[in-house]
């Protein structure tokens, strides 16, 4: 039953890809609004990886496991980003400020964006499942962080795939499949890591934390500042504070 619960929360986080793609296909979203979502989401993610992933990992598994996982996650994300950049997915998590013009009119670039989303989403969803191993309820901050980071990815992809001539059914179908994969990854995170050592769980959390921080620094914060300028820092702080308050509510 808990595995089904994990899958449900993973599906919720992954569904943001589908929501973002639908919005990006149907509407022209103001770049400043997207930048505000980016900045707020960046703050939420930084808080989540700091307190929900790194701090918990350090307390349960120690510094060595947490630090090694953290560096590995950042290295894997960077390597995957470099590889995907050569296939047209350099700006897969960027959706404002003329992002559509950055996406090549090539069907392969749209599929590279989808592959990038899958690579990003699997470790994030696994963490959602793992969070159920540490208490009776899921980490709402982790789910919110994944959801907010996925919306711009869906927005960005819709414009690129539409320009490449893909149909709405194809685009939404791709993201629906990735959302289902996110649900499966969350369930797997709960099932596969149940009963494993605290060090392994800590390292797994830290891998996701390193990948998330690298992504935030590489895409979300630069995009938010590029469009929102002086307000980006304040909105990011508000996102961090909101997530911090949620993670410590009732503590």
Task: Kindly describe this structure.
The protein is mainly alpha-helical and 251 residues long. It has 9 helices and no strands. The protein has helices spanning 2-26, 31-61, 63-85, 99-102, 107-131, 140-163, 168-193, 198-228, 232-247. The protein is globular. Residues 95-108 have low confidence and may be disordered.
Write the layout of secondary structure elements.
Layout lengths: L1 H25 L4 H31 L1 H23 L13 H4 L4 H25 L8 H24 L4 H26 L4 H31 L3 H16 L4
Fraction in beta strands:
under 5%
Shape: globular
What would you call the structural class? mainly alpha
Low-confidence stretches: 95-108
Biggest β-sheet description: none
Q: How many beta-strand elements?
A: 0
Q: Please compute the radius of gyration using only Cα atoms.
A: 17 Å
In helices, the fraction of residues equals: over 70%
In N-to-C order, the SSE pattern is HHHHHHHHH
- Kindly report the average pLDDT value: 79
End-to-end C-alpha gap: 26 Å
This entry's quaternary arrangement is single chain
The DSSP helix count reads 9
